[in-house]
UniProtKB/TrEMBL annotation:
Coiled coil: none annotated. Pfam families: PspC (PF04024). It is a single-pass membrane protein. It comes from the Bacteria. One of its GO terms (cellular component) is plasma membrane. InterPro entries: Phageshock_PspC_N (IPR007168), PspC (IPR052027). Keywords: Cell membrane, Membrane, Transmembrane, Transmembrane helix. The keyword Oxidoreductase does not apply. It is found in: Cell membrane. The chain crosses the membrane at residues 35-57. Residues 4-59 form the Phage shock protein PspC N-terminal domain. The keyword Cell membrane applies. This is PspC domain-containing protein. The lineage of its organism: Bacteria, Bacillati, Bacillota, Clostridia, Lachnospirales.
Length: 63
């Protein structure tokens, strides 16, 4: 059995696919992840964390 991997989404993306990939990984709607990330983004650290995640997370090779 292959372990589950965290990828940026190709299908469910608004900007770079980070929230869509997190939603696919945890099996929740990406809209919920986006709302939480938007609230976190208001702190300033969330914006930096988003772009760091976009650089670190590879794009999903299956799509």
């Amino acid at each position: 059995m292959e372990p589950k991997r965290l990828y940026r989404s190709v299908r469910d993306r608004m900007l770079l696919g980070v929230c869509g990939g997190i939603g696919e990984y945890f099996g929740v709607d990406a809209t919920i992840i986006r709302v939480v990330w938007a609230l976190f983004g208001c702190t300033g650290a969330g914006i930096l964390a988003y772009f760091i995640a976009a650089v670190i997370m590879p794009q999903n090779p299956e799509n």
